[in-house]
Prior knowledge:
The protein is mainly alpha-helical. The chain has one domain. The protein has helices spanning 2-14, 17-38, 50-69, 72-81, 83-88, 94-124, 130-142, 145-157, 160-177, 189-196, 199-211, 218-239, 253-272. It starts with a helix and ends with a helix. Mean pLDDT is 83; it is low at 243-273.
Amino acid sequence: xxxxxxxxxxxxxxxxxxxxxxxxxxxxxxxxxxxxxxxxxxxxxxxxxxxxxxxxxxxxxxxxxxxxxxxxxxxxxxxxxxxxxxxxxxxxxxxxxxxxxxxxxxxxxxxxxxxxxxxxxxxxxxxxxxxxxxxxxxxxxxxxxxxxxxxxxxxxxxxxxxxxxxxxxxxxxxxxxxxxxxxxxxxxxxxxxxxxxxxxxxxxxxxxxxxxxxxxxxxxxxxxxxxxxxxxxxxxxxxxxxxxxxxxxxxxxxxxxxxxxxxxxxxxxxxxx
Length: 273
């Protein structure tokens, strides 16, 4: 059943124009823009080329939104519409559902990550050793786990009206403070201290270090693991509060009736699977 839910969640996200625009098209467009403007300057010995540094930042940027958007807004909507209650009539536990959500969040983060790297190779001639590609993509992909967990927490806590703006606001703030928009070295010392505590910076730093031919630091791994553990614990605490439909204000019965056909179609897809 978890596999069927996972497949359904992935198909729903890959057909969502908002996901494609924000998690795939936008990071590729930003990469081409920033790499063209800032990527051609000379570098000091030991520094990454601008085209490589920006590639890693924009790959992280897209992957983070893929993980967040597949969990937070969708989970909040499903709580509000009653879809989760319909799932409880099937042999689906909360653990199955959250496992499928997290797996789907990780899965749909991968296209953004890979396609930004492919764009960098094709359009800007970025070249890394084979072992660097083999380490960079899986390491950054697994590093999106805390963002998928963050999305689950958001989806369990807030209603559908607030879930998308809250998720997007957290995403933009963490990306800016984490050095994805401005190289961390150009941030003030106070902002650098903040950046070093954020999973956005640590995710990008994984990629920057691998692209430079170095192993990830224990600080990178430790901060990402700490965020993952903390958000996983928070997810368990929130889930133990008991079932909540989280219906947003102003949602009428007519909206619920409009939501049911889509839910019934999804239930049929699960049964067919």
